[in-house]
Amino acid sequence: MTGFAVLFAAVAGAAFAATGLLLRQLRRRAILDHPNERSSHSLPTPRGGGLAIVPVVVIAWTVVGVMGDAAPPMFVVVALAVVLAVVFWIDDLRGLPVAMRLAVQAAAIAVVLIAAPSDRAYISAALPSAVDLLLAGVFWLWFVNLFNFMDGIDGLAGGEPASIGFGVAIVVFVGGVAGNLPALGIALAAAALGFLIWNWQPAKVFLGDVGSVPLGFVTGWLLLELAAHGQGVAALILPLYYLADATVTLARRAARGERVWQAHHEHFYQRAVQCGHSHAAVVRHVLAVNVVLVGLAAVAAAGRPGIAFAGAVLAVGTLLFFLGWPGGNGSE
Questions:
Q1: Whole-number average pLDDT of the chain
Q2: Rounded CA separation 50/162 (Å)
Q3: What CA–CA distance (Å, rounded) separates 57 from 62?
Q4: Helices 2-28 & 181-199, crossing angle to 10 degrees?
Q5: In the chain, N or C terminus with fewer CB closer than 10 Å?
Q6: How many Cα atoms occupy the beta-carbon half-sphere of 278 within 13 Å?
């Protein structure tokens, strides 16, 4: 436990310091996110915090991997996270076509899945290996994009990976899973919390696609690894709020014939802000439910997956109802 405490303190401190140093450069170079009709903020704010957080996560995971004798696919994930950061920094600055963004993400995911051991199952061992890999890739690609979609208010992009990272570590401890997943989860959570200090309302810096896409990529891999070690239900429970909010919202937009890839302000968390909640209040509600989800994921890891998943659906459904119901959103 001492080693985990040292890892957490070192990574959180590095993320906090790196973000502070980067913020000066972003301001100096006027790399700002200007408000528009779809924004949830009202003032120009520096964008590109991922330029600080992604390197911290990459370095921390590399150190953990070297010290823990990690399997080669983890190092592939780390290397591709750097590639994604470069590509999506260009996207932040100039904008890239949707098809190109998806193609780059899909290629990175395919490389990792091909490099992974061939005897593992992510979704179900009852499925043919090719089908299991395809479904895992589709889930991962969706997760990377929804992670990007959900980065829309102050604090949310830091709070979610912190919750999932800690959750992965707890599930591994409870479920008795071997390997370095706990250290990777704690490192991810620590980096996210170091950034969250700067991103909490009122945010001094935004993550940007340079951060949200690589972080979604590594977080998605962490969840798939958890599933591959027999904890599929727990891996589904931990990000369930993100999955539900993004999936329901995008399904509604698709049903209306709208372009789901275009920016909008229809997510449940955005509607809550529009109805009067502060960004901080919404994130506190989400984090409270995430704590419940972490507990339920631990219950699933302990051998009660059905009860745990039912509780998770109830908790997330209640949160979505609260965030999306105008009468439940008093100003705060």
A1: 90
A2: 15
A3: 8
A4: 40
A5: N
A6: 9
Share of the chain above pLDDT 90, in %: 72
Asked if 49 and 22 count as a contact pair (C-beta separation under 8 A), the reply is: yes
DSSP category for residue 327? G
Give the dihedral sign, CA 267/270/274/275: positive
- Among 38-47, 214-223, 290-299, name the one with the lowest average pLDDT: 38-47
How many helices (DSSP H) and strands (DSSP E) are in the chain? Answer: 13, 2
Q: What distances in angstroms separate CA 325 from CA 74, 81, 271, 272, 319, one per listed residue?
A: 42, 37, 9, 8, 10
SS3 state of residue 298:
helix
* Cα 81 to Cα 61: distance, rounded to the nearest angstrom: 11
Give the span between the Cα atoms of 151 and 40, in whole angstroms.
Answer: 10
Residues 6+ apart with CB under 8 A from 100: none
What does the pLDDT average to over 224-251? 94
DSSP letter assigned to residue 203: P
Residue 48 in 3-state DSSP?
A: coil
Q: Distance between CA atoms of 138 and 313, rounded to whole angstroms?
A: 22
pLDDT tens digits, residue range 154-165?
A: 999 899 999 999
- Report the distance separating Cα 315 and Cα 292, nearest Å: 8
If you search the block for the tokens 């190092």, which residue do you land on?
A: 75
